[in-house]
Design goal:
7-stranded mixed beta sheet, binds pyridoxal-5'-phosphate
């Protein structure tokens, strides 16, 4: 399949076939393919100034973008650093955390994904094809992974909610027994994206924050996938009602144009020193203009509210399939970040990655693009543009039903 064109929630291949795009360039084109306001802002900036190295001179677009983000960020005062990819922003967040706390160790979740540069890949621990490789290693020292609140497959063998969040209790043990006790930060995705739309219980991050505060550890939320409206609020942290110390943004920030950011509460960001970070493309004027237009569009149309409404319809429709089809193990998510976990049997919960690939191919054949993820490669990821309408959700649900029936009949 070769994609040649994109218009809002649809993309078209070389043969002219139309697909409903429910992955949005990996949760990126949140304002729709070819969003006219974003494209216009890019064109305007291109004609004015493309590049001068914004980490060497001040330019206007990054200043405007920083102001705009500060207006909506969940911090009293907000500092921003702009880079190009999510991985790069994760690297910067680790440096800021270490500078601010003057401590080294970093905690992160089992099976999380934070990118592929060395620190980003060390923070992550996704198994399978996204995993670490002996030959490419060694990775970095000072990173400790802690259990993820993946309640469908609890690593600790508990059932939610009677577990009383043992994963948070173990986090405290690990701080004491598995680190140097000089821990700078805990880095987590509010909802694990590549890891399979693993959706922690509502109170999880608030409970984690209490532990982190006791030990003077910063909470860094990697909102590369959850940020800017996807989970039904502007921030994933807002969905979980927790105040982090830092937020990492990427993907959706530029609606397809490459830009990422680290946002921090003021004094945390102030600790970064000249020389800690520099990038030729950092705070690129054209990308910052794209990002400002993206954020404006999000705010103007309050698209996080649409994500909440359309996400509920999607979740409800797919939950019905969870009851009807033996191979649909669990449907979960928040807003327009929904996962469908495919298993051999409901009772045994054996991950079925082969079936997942076949179903995904069937969906594409029937005109619907979705993503693939999960620790065992058995989760379909549904992350469409936040501009989708009820008719698109209905069309997608019909294609799911048709494809599931076809798969059942194989
Ligand atoms: C949560 C999260 N963090 C970081 C990254 C890395 O972003 P990039 O691929 O832009 O380096 C990704 C990419 O999928 C991601 O999903």
């Amino acid at each position: 399949m070769v994609i040649v064109e994109g218009r809002d929630v649809f993309v078209y291949d070389l043969e002219g076939k139309r697909y409903l795009d429910f992955w949005a360039g990996i949760a990126t084109v949140n304002m729709g393919h070819g969003n006219p306001k974003v494209q216009e802002a890019v064109r305007r900036q291109m004609d004015r100034l493309v590049h001068i190295a914004s980490h060497a001179y001040y330019t206007v677009p990054p200043l405007n973008l920083a102001k705009r983000l500060a207006e909506i960020a969940p911090f009293d005062s907000c500092k921003s650093v702009f880079c190009t990819s999510g991985s790069e922003a994760i690297e910067v967040s680790v440096k800021i955390a270490r500078r601010f706390t003057r401590k080294h160790d970093i905690l992160s979740l089992y099976g999380s994904y934070h990118g592929r540069t060395y620190a980003a890949q060390t923070v992550g621990s996704t198994p399978g094809c996204y995993g670490k490789s002996y030959v490419v290693g060694p990775y970095l020292l000072g990173f400790v992974h802690v259990p993820t609140p993946y309640c469908y497959r609890c690593s600790l063998g508990y059932e939610y909610p009677s577990c009383n969040l043992q994963c948070v209790k173990i986090l405290e043990d690990l701080i004491n027994f598995a680190t140097t006790r000089e821990v700078a930060a805990y880095i987590a995705e509010p909802i694990l994206g590549v890891g399979g739309i693993v959706t922690p219980p509502n109170e999880y991050f608030r409970e984690v924050k209490k532990v982190l505060d006791r030990y003077g550890i910063l909470m860094v939320l990697d909102e590369v996938q959850t940020g800017l409206g996807r989970t039904g609020k502007i921030w994933g942290s807002e969905t979980y009602n927790v105040k982090p110390d830092m937020i990492v943004l990427g993907k959706a920030l530029g609606n397809g144009w490459p830009i990422s950011a680290v946002l921090t509460r003021g004094e945390v960001g102030d600790s970064l020193e000249v020389g800690d970070f520099f990038a030729t493309w950092g705070a690129h004027p054209v990308m910052c203009a794209a990002a400002e237009a993206t954020v404006d569009y999000l705010l103007r149309f309050r698209l996080w509210e649409n994500a909440e409404r359309m996400g509920s319809l999607m979740l409800k429709g797919l939950k019905e399939f969870e009851e009807r089809f033996e191979f649909v193990g669990e449907v979960r998510g928040k807003g327009l970040m929904v996962g469908v976990e495919i298993v051999k049997t409901k009772r045994g919960k054996e991950p079925d990655s082969e079936a997942t690939v076949k179903i995904r191919e069937g969906l594409a054949k029937n005109g619907l693009l979705v993503g693939l993820g999960g620790w065992w490669g058995n989760v379909l990821r549904i992350q469409p543009p936040l501009t989708i309408k009820r008719e698109h959700v209905e069309e997608a649900l019909n294609i799911f039903e048709k494809t599931f029936k076809e798969f059942e009949g194989l």
